[in-house]
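Subject: DUF1189 family protein structure
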Amino acid sequence: MNLFQLFKASLMEPRKQAAVRIMSIGKILRYVFVLVLLMTIVSFAELAVGLGNTGNDTEGLLEFVEDIKWLLYPFAFIFLFVSTTLYHFVKISLFALVGLVFIQMKKRKGEYRHLWRTTALAVTIPTLLSFAFSFFDVPMWATFALGLLTIIYLHFATNYYPKQPPAKKKPA
């Protein structure tokens, strides 16, 4: 699957989200990094435009930023990318633990590494919605609802994991 197919599968195809558990981790990591990079570029563009549109109350700060703009922007972009990547990876890892609980409750076969790959796709829509909400004044309960949406996507995706074989009885 290419990156566009992974993105399409992440939108509303729990069967394909579960199927990525057998893909190489490299493709999934590339997908996560590209998603984070795109969000970082948009956030950085908002930051760059926002610095130019600040009010007249911060004239000294604006002059300082103008003097070091060549230094400020690359470091700001790198810091934004690294921090967003770290946050996204921690979020995926924590939701994968929730998915591991689902697997055990449903008596399905799967490991944490499989659930991490599935979660990387299941978290896409809530992440994009959260990113879009960050540009507006959205109440805190919306962030909580987006976390629940990720858990719901994981629940649906784990339904497509293979069932565990029945336990064999030991001969007496």
